[in-house]
Amino acid sequence: MVPALPVAVSAQSLDARNLAMHFCQLAVSDEVRRSGQNVPEGLTQSTCQCFLRQFDFNSNLKAAERTCRQETLRRYGL
């Protein structure tokens, strides 16, 4: 039998991850628009997925941001 606590923790983690994804997408979209460019389809999703993966990997916000910013610039030719 699976204990109830891990399920609750997983649900909370999922909610936190969804919230982080939402705010990340808003921030990325805003940054691209402020640069005077249109936001290419898929850019915010892929950038924020990258960010969350990188943060999970090394727990360093600045490193995750730097890595994913470079990946996005290369991928989308911005």
Distinctive features:
single chain; 78 residues; mainly alpha; globular; disordered N terminus
* Residues in helices, as a percent range: over 70%
Calculate the mean pLDDT score and round it.
84
**Major beta-sheet overview:** none
The run of helices and strands is: HHH
Relative strand content: under 5%
Low-confidence stretches: 1-9
User: How many H/I helices?
Assistant: 3
Task: Please state the CA-atom Rg, rounded to the nearest Å.
Answer: 15 Å
Shape: globular
Query: What is the distance, rounded to the nearest whole angstrom, between the alpha carbons of the first and last residues?
Result: 51 Å
Task: Work out the number of β strands.
Answer: 0
* Classification by helices and strands: mainly alpha
What does this entry look like structurally?
This protein has helices at residues 4-34, 43-58, 61-76. The chain is mainly α and 78 residues long. Mean pLDDT is 84; it is low at 1-9.
